[in-house]
Structures are given as C-alpha cells and as structure tokens.
Amino acid sequence: MSPLLILAWVAIGFGVGTLSAMLGIGGGLFVAPLLLHYYEHLAGIDQALIAPLAAATSLLSVWVTSLLGGLGHWRHGEVAWREALWAGLTGAVAGWLITWGVATQPGYRPEILRIVLAVIFGMLLVRMLLQSGVRVQRRCHPPGWVPPLVGIAAGVVSPLAGIGGGVVMVPLWYYVGRMEMHRATGTSIASIVPIASVALLVYVVRGWGHAGLPTYSLGYVDWVTALPLLVGSALGAPLGAHLAQRIPAPWLRRIFALVSLGMILYLLRG
Predict the structure, then answer these.
(1) How far is Cα 69 from Cα 233, in angstroms, rounded to an integer?
(2) What predicted TM-score, i.e. pTM, was given to this entire model?
(3) Are 189 and 25 in contact, with CB atoms under 8 Å apart?
(4) Which H or E run includes 255?
(5) Predicted confidence band at 133 (pLDDT cuts at 50, 70, 90)?
C-alpha cells in the first residue's frame, strides 16, 4: 500500500470516527461502502470474496470506534448501561447466527451488501423526514422488552452490512424506547461493542486460510487496510463523543437525515 493511500485511509478513519461517535452509529455505514468500492475497483479481489471482506474489515473499524466513542459518552453520563448490556447480548447472539449462516456464504454477493445498505439508509431517511415534531415524554429506562428488540434488529443488520447496528438502534431507542436523543446515541454506541465483537470473530474463523484474500489478512479481516483506518478512528472518536454533547438533539436528527441521503445517492450510483 502506497504512503498516499495510507494517509487517505487515516483521514477517512478520522472523519468516520468523529461523525460516527457523534451520531452513535459505529462507523460502518461510512466505511463499508468505501471498502466495497476499493475491493471492487482498486484491489483486484475475487468477486466472491468482496462482500465478506468489506463487511469484516469494516466491523473492525466499527469495534474500535464504538469502544472509544462509548467511553466518551459514558464520561458525559449519557449511557444507559443496563439497556446497553441487554441489547448488546441479544444482538451478539443474533449477529452470530446471521454471520455464520448467511454473511460468510459464497452466495452472499457485493450487490446484496449494496442493497442492504441502501435499504437501511432509505428507512432511516424516511423516518427522520416523517418526524412530526410532537413532543413525547422521554424515559431514562424504557420497558424491558425494548432492549432485546433493539439488540436483535442490530444483530441482524450488523453482519450483513458490515456495520455495528447503530443506524437501527438510535432510531429504535429514540422512537420506541423514548430515550432522549443524546442518551439514545450514547447507549447505542455502547451496545455495538459486543455485537461487533461476535460478528468479527465469526468472520475471522470462517475466512481462516481462504485462498485469494489480501496478504496478511486474518480470516476475512484485511489488517493492512484496517490499521490506518483504526488509527484515524481512534483519533476521531473521542472528538465525536465530545461534539455530540454540544449539538442540540434536533440538529443531530437532521445530520442523520443528511448523511442518509448522501449515502443512498452514493450506493445507487454503484
């Protein structure tokens, strides 16, 4: 990998780490499409390996960003740890089943990954645009059935799209669990850590010794590409967590919607 490409991945990682920790979404929403494009057009990877390779390498970045971002939100007192733990555990189980049974199979193609990502962004954008503005009473602790629901939804989406699941968790915590936006953001990114950990482990095991993977890959995880991303993410995540506490909740929702629209356009252009 050239020095210029390394610097580019560090810069991307910094931007992703900042934005994802600020929005509570882990970072895979931004990294996965970029890795998909890189492996499809620049790295010369076999078509059958592109989707699991992009998803697994993205999840490693998600794991680091979520861990550091979660610590940042915790320092500001914006993590509901009981709910985060339950969502993380149920999401980890669902993520293990989906990763092992679907996301690492030969039939799982890059086109499917692209469609999954576009649908996720579309659902998020529609929900944000339909925000009625009606005020509802917010809770610090939602009903007991909400965390497993949030975790299962994130666990299904995470391995298929190479994301931590925060893109579905934040709206669910906010709209279903009725958490305040900042608390939904912090709780979401803390929940991502166990979900991404399990999915990442399965990707490593399933891809171990597979022919055609990039040099120095650990299973489906491309360490050479992931390392500069991790460096940038590690620098950006604390900044994002800090900024999240300074931005009013309505503006966080608007940023969510704008990011979703931009990524939909990017994915649709192929």
Answers:
(1) 10
(2) 0.71
(3) yes
(4) helix 249-268
(5) low
